[in-house]
């Protein structure tokens, strides 16, 4: 049985999730960067993120990095068009982080809108497929000699600007998840083994009280 304190922490996390904010990793290929991005996503309330991989070896790294957090879900794809179609169906603005000329300052974007942030690989940068489907390219202003930041650092900077804007608008003060999905996810995180058994049996999840006890 789950402890009341742990149950409250899980519930608090889900109450602050932002289902209309996500990240797409475009062929990001280093496991430590994948893990760092996943942690940043969890911190700002992102529960689901996406990764596109064109190389089998990188796909394996992404799959391994998915275990960096049991609190987020990493969806893996082999092509950008598939994830872009999914995001477009959810009416998300697609923002591609780039260092090319003509990009908008990342602080001048409205992140309170449904938003998907696309970040590129360390070796190859943003792909043409990612750029082609973007609603806007954004950049972090740079005044030194280096041309770009580490992908996980850049992602964190942009996500915390999104968090700042959403906090100012009160988007962390009320439940953003669909209530049915909230209660389903809460039960599955509180009772992972039991939830698997109930799904296999086709049995609905029981209700939980405020302490996480099964009613």
UniProtKB/TrEMBL annotation:
Pfam families registered for this protein in UniProt: SpoU_methylas_C, SpoU_methylase
Enzyme class: transferase
Reactions this protein catalyses: guanosine(18) in tRNA + S-adenosyl-L-methionine = 2'-O-methylguanosine(18) in tRNA + S-adenosyl-L-homocysteine + H(+)
Residues noted as binding S-adenosyl-L-methionine in the record, renumbered to the chain: 140, 149
Gene Ontology biological-process annotations: tRNA guanine ribose methylation
GO terms of molecular function: tRNA (guanine(18)-2'-O)-methyltransferase activity; tRNA binding
InterPro entries: Alpha/beta_knot_MTases, rRNA_MeTrfase_SpoU_C, SpoU_MeTrfase, TrmH, tRNA_m1G_MTases_N
Family annotation (Gene3D superfamilies): 3.40.1280.10
Enzyme Commission number(s) of this protein: 2.1.1.34
Entry keywords, A to Z: Methyltransferase, RNA-binding, S-adenosyl-L-methionine, Transferase, tRNA processing, tRNA-binding
Chain ranges of the tRNA/rRNA methyltransferase SpoU type domain: 21-160
RNA methyltransferase SpoU/TrmH type C-terminal domain: residues covered: 164-215
Family statement: Belongs to the class IV-like SAM-binding methyltransferase superfamily. RNA methyltransferase TrmH family.
Described purpose of this protein according to its UniProt entry: Catalyzes the 2'-O methylation of guanosine at position 18 in tRNA.
The protein, known as: tRNA (guanosine(18)-2'-O)-methyltransferase
Native source species: Chlorobium ferrooxidans DSM 13031
